[in-house]
Design brief:
The complex is a heterodimer of chains A (444) and B (434).
Chain A (H helix, E strand, L loop, with lengths): L8 E2 L5 H7 L9 H9 L8 H5 L6 H9 L3 H11 L3 H7 L6 H4 L1 H6 L5 H15 L13 E5 L3 H12 L3 E6 L7 H4 L10 H10 L4 E5 L9 H7 L2 E4 L5 E2 L12 E3 H10 L8 E2 L1 E5 L3 H13 L3 E5 L11 H9 L3 E3 L2 E7 L6 E9 L4 E11 L2 E4 L3 E2 L8 E2 L2 E2 L12 E3 L11 H19 L4
Parallel strand pairs in A: 2-3, 2-5, 3-4, 5-19, 7-15, 9-10, 9-15, 10-11
Antiparallel strand pairs in A: 1-8, 6-16, 12-13, 13-14, 17-18
Helix pairs in contact in A: 2-4, 2-9, 4-5, 4-9, 5-9, 6-9, 10-17, 14-15, 15-16
Chain B lengths: L5 E3 L2 E3 L3 E3 L8 H10 L3 E7 L14 E5 L5 E6 L8 H14 L4 E6 L5 H12 L5 E5 L13 H4 L2 H14 L4 E4 L8 H9 L4 E4 L3 E3 L2 E3 L4 E3 L9 E4 L4 H13 L8 E4 L5 H9 L2 E6 L1 H6 L3 H16 L27 E5 L9 H9 L4 E3 L5 E3 L9 H5 L6 E5 L27 H6 L1
Parallel strand pairs in B: 3-4, 3-16, 4-7, 7-8, 8-9, 9-10, 10-15, 15-16
Antiparallel strand pairs in B: 1-2, 5-6, 6-14, 11-14, 12-13, 17-20, 18-19
Helix pairs in contact in B: 3-5, 5-6, 8-10
Classes of the chains: A alpha/beta (444), B alpha/beta (434).
Catalytic activity (chain B): 5,6-dihydrothymine + NAD(+) = thymine + NADH + H(+); 5,6-dihydrouracil + NAD(+) = uracil + NADH + H(+)
Subunit structure (chain B): Heterotetramer of 2 PreA and 2 PreT subunits.
Organism (chain B): Yoonia tamlensis
Chain lengths: 444, 434
């Protein structure tokens, strides 16, 4: 058994019971009475701002009213009608920047209705009770290939299956779920929720899943177009940006997404090694997830090093506070210039930055931090454009996910437009499905 | 701090807060603790005639209505009068009164509508040293089926008759407690006065079914699959009680008859409102059954603070002060014109005012793309619904128009003179009189 003080990269820094507590639900589910009290706070606003703020436009006042009148199952149906991954979104949505930020009680008293937790309350109840709440329409005889079984692909496949189409959903990885399964902090998706949700969603029927099939390797877009009536791409961003820093190839310098992926697939977190001194480079959700989970595993010193100031950080203030509360140090206005060490990383050298309005510049002043592990979390990239037109570094789409090629739609993180959020991916997958349906049925 | 000492029918109590005749005042243990907590007086739970006491059900006696966060807004009960032996109650009353001479103890009584029954019990009650009696003509369940309680309170002749017997056989104050389960409360109040009552107290509880169990299809509270109507009380009944109090206070026949106000009094403000409508004191029950005796501390501190702020030195200073302002609809000033005004700084943009006005009223609130809500004066009739549904207090207010201005809704000049329905040109009776 090692400890937080153990030098280098080591497993079992904390007793297994402590680790279990650390990785318990970030937001405990609401007990029925708590849910009733929380639901009573909703004003049932006209044309509610929370609903407008929700990328999937869930009828939030209605579902909360349904909870308050003792019908959480009906509430869940209201949620799933708009967002079939309402269970996961209830756990991972940055509600503090979406529905809860828009809540009029946030304006009134700085304490919004707990929409996210109420959504989880309702969806948990229905999912525990009912195998699957939707039926398929009569078969259309049409087939659609959905590439990528993440939030966008799942939402798209489900909505298409509901309309009576037959779907084959491919995914490069051995398990479906995409970032829900491999990318989100473990304390946001406890008890294997991502996998359970996929199973529950597939209960609609009509969706065949083929894992281990990657676009650009086992799959080609041309073949998919030939074999299916339509194609939806929800392949996400599988690549990771490099630091382009001297010493980046040293042992211990890894992609944050790989660390998180390993953590999420680990069956015993005390066997997962983590550094004593961990430095995470980046300022987004992935950086926070990697840093916080390192700390929870027992790393002694964890620092998030971000090149701009706090306001520019894409991780929300809630996430920043979460990291700080777990003991993560947030270091702003620093950029990596060199990774030092003899084979393995020992230190990272950072340069202070400033921005006088003409762009970010190094000030010439340096700081060195001890580091056994450096996690790179400076953004993800598309791994293949599949011959489609790009907009910036993403697949260009117009309308409801239409790509430059007729018969091919795209949504989620790989497609242009929208935030890289689970809920946005669900909305895009769903809307593309309805556009595909209309196209296939000749009403477009 | 204002002196809350109150004299009601010559009975002094350190404050105007009495506990109503109900479970909290059923026995010595409770009443002693209530007095220790600070209550000014109690009306002892209703005594019945000598002999085997009544029996209560052995299942649920109460049903409830809740607001947000399970806040109890209304309670109903199917409990009867005291189910303890008469002599036990009398002995306890005697002991407690001896130990708390500065507190008011009124004994509630309900015996059959026969002179002998009243003649028999009244000397026994007098012997306890209690300060007065209250005639329970209000209990709407159980006892009414036996010709007592509200069965008496619904027949003014009976009220007068029994009151007369009490005045004949008892020489201390007689308070008649009225049932609200009638159409015109002025009639029983008049009957009580005609019988010589020193005061009336109201309201007793209202016939009610609080809820229906949809699994077993039975009203609640449910006793072995069946339920019966109970008596409704608590904050939900306060508006009904205050209206009835005001009718008695302003009716020429009963004006000036002392009133003890009952019905949902929960806070000092409730008490002050009842008293402003003419009550010399108030009686409290549901609030203590919900929160315990301790709430009297808030009643005392709140009323004292308010009296100090207003410069009142005695509760009698403000009793009845609102009565002259209670009038009939026909005397309301139809020349008074107000418009709703939304304070944009306070508005949280929930849109409830818009939904209420647009869907159910006068389409007098506009909503812009950025969710700014504003009043359309051309449509606003000042109905107050927007104020009532707004979650932010004082965000929407009703602003009176100045005489001489033109009401954009009617295009007419706001008149400065008072003008009511009796003289309005649209009143057919007005034309008939010409």
């Amino acid at each position: 058994m090692s400890s937080p003080m153990t030098p280098g990269i080591a497993a079992a820094r904390l007793p297994s019971e402590t680790v279990k507590t650390h990785f318990a639900d970030l937001h405990e589910p609401l007990a029925p009475h708590e849910a009733s009290v929380a639901a009573d706070r909703c004003y049932f606003c006209h044309d509610a701002p929370c609903m407008t703020a929700c990328p999937t436009s869930i009828d939030i006042p209605l579902f909360i009213r349904q909870i308050s009148t003792g019908t959480p199952e009906a509430a869940a149906k209201t949620i799933f009608d708009q967002n079939i991954l309402g269970g996961m979104c209830a756990r991972v949505c940055p509600t503090e920047e979406l529905c809860e930020q828009a809540c009029v009680r946030e304006a009134a008293e700085g304490k919004p209705v707990e929409i996210g937790r109420l959504q989880r309350h309702a969806t948990d109840i229905l999912m525990a009770k009912q195998s699957h709440p939707y039926n398929r329409a009569a078969s259309t005889g049409k087939t659609v290939a959905v590439v990528g079984a993440g939030p966008a692909g799942l939402a798209c496949a489900h909505r298409l299956a509901m309309q009576g189409h037959d779907i084959v959903m491919f995914d490069a990885l051995p398990k479906s779920g995409g970032l829900n399964e491999y990318g989100i902090a473990a304390y946001k998706s406890t008890d294997d929720f991502a996998a359970r949700e996929v199973d529950w969603l597939l209960g609609i029927g009509g969706i065949t899943v083929e894992n281990g099939k990657r676009l650009g390797a086992e799959l080609s877009l041309a073949q998919l177009q030939a074999d299916y009536d339509a194609v939806f791409l929800g392949v996400g961003l599988g690549g990771v940006n490099a630091l382009r820093t001297e010493g980046e190839d040293k042992n211990g310098v890894i992609d944050a997404v790989d660390f998180i992926k390993a953590l999420r697939q680990s069956t015993d977190l005390t066997k997962l090694p983590v550094g004593r001194d961990v430095v995470v480079i980046g300022g987004g959700m992935t950086a926070v997830d990697a840093a916080v989970q390192s700390k929870l595993l027992g790393a002694l010193n964890v620092t998030i090093a971000y090149r701009r100031d706090r306001d520019a950080m894409s991780a929300s203030p809630f996430e920043q506070d979460l990291a700080a509360s777990k003991g993560v140090r947030l270091l702003f206005n620093v950029q990596p210039v060199a990774v030092h060490g003899n084979g393995a990383v020992r230190e990272i050298e950072l340069e202070y930055t400033s921005d006088d309005g003409t762009g970010l510049k190094g000030t010439g002043e340096m700081i060195r931090l001890p580091a056994d592990q450096v996690f790179k979390a400076i953004g993800q990239t598309l791994t293949t454009d599949a011959g489609l037109e790009l907009s910036g570094r993403k697949i260009a789409v117009t309308g409801a996910g239409r790509t430059s090629v007729a018969g091919v739609w795209a949504g989620g993180d790989c497609a242009s437009g929208g935030d890289d959020l689970t809920v946005t991916a669900v909305a895009e997958g769903r809307d593309a499905a309805m556009d595909i349906h209309a196209t296939l049925m000749g009403s477009n | 701090m204002a002196d809350l000492t109150t004299e009601f029918l010559g009975i002094k109590s350190p404050n105007p807060f009495w506990l109503a005749s109900a479970p909290p005042t059923d026995k010595e243990y409770n009443v002693r603790r209530a007095f220790e907590a600070g209550w000014g007086g109690v009306v002892w739970k209703t005594l019945g005639a000598e002999g085997p006491p009544v029996v209560n059900v052995n299942g649920p006696r109460y049903g409830a209505i809740y607001g947000a966060d399970r806040r109890l807004l209304g309670l109903n009960n199917i409990e009867l009068i005291t189910d303890r032996d008469l002599q036990t109650n009398l002995d306890e009353i005697t002991r407690v009164k001896a130990d708390y001479p500065d507190r008011a103890i009124i004994v509630s009584i309900m015996v059959p509508c026969e002179e002998e029954a009243w003649k028999a019990i009244l000397p026994k009650v007098a012997a306890t040293g209690a300060d007065g009696i209250e005639l329970n003509f209000g209990c709407p369940h159980g006892m009414a089926e036996r010709g007592m309680g509200s069965a008496v309170g619904q027949v003014p002749e009976y009220i007068q008759m029994v009151t007369e017997w009490c005045k004949k056989y008892y020489d201390k104050p007689v308070i008649v407690k009225l049932t609200p389960n009638i159409t015109d409360v002025r009639k029983p109040a008049q009957a009580a006065k005609d019988g010589g009552a020193d005061a009336v107290s109201l309201i007793n509880t209202i016939n009610s079914i609080t809820s229906v169990d949809l699994d077993i299809m039975a009203p609640q509270p449910t006793i072995d699959g069946k339920g019966t109507h109970g008596g409704y009380c608590g904050p939900a009944v306060k508006p009904i009680a205050m209206s009835m109090v005001s009718e008695i206070a302003r009716d020429p026949g009963t004006h000036g008859l002392p009133i003890s106000g009952i019905g949902g009094v929960t806070t000092w403000r409730d008490a002050a409102e009842f008293m402003a409508l003419g009550c010399g004191n108030v009686q409290v029950c549901t609030a203590v059954m919900t929160y315990g005796f301790k709430i009297v501390e808030e009643l005392i501190s709140g009323l004292s603070q308010w009296m100090d702020e207003k410069g009142y030195t005695s509760t009698s200073d403000f009793v009845g002060m609102a009565v002259p302002n209670v009038t009939d609809w026909q005397y309301l000033n139809l020349n008074y014109v107000a418009k709703a005004k939304i304070n944009q700084d306070d508005c949280i943009k929930c849109g409830r005012c818009y939904a209420a006005c647009e869907d159910t009223s006068h389409q007098a609130i506009a909503m812009s793309d950025d969710r700014t809500f504003s009043v359309i004066d051309e449509e606003c009739v000042a109905c107050n619904l927007c104020v009532d549904v707004c979650p932010i207090e004082n965000c929407i207010t009703m602003e009176a128009m100045t005489p001489g201005e033109i009401d954009p809704r009617t295009g007419k000049v706001v008149e400065k003179d008072y003008g009511n329905w009796t003289t309005h040109p649209n009143n057919p009776a007005n034309f008939a009189a010409e």
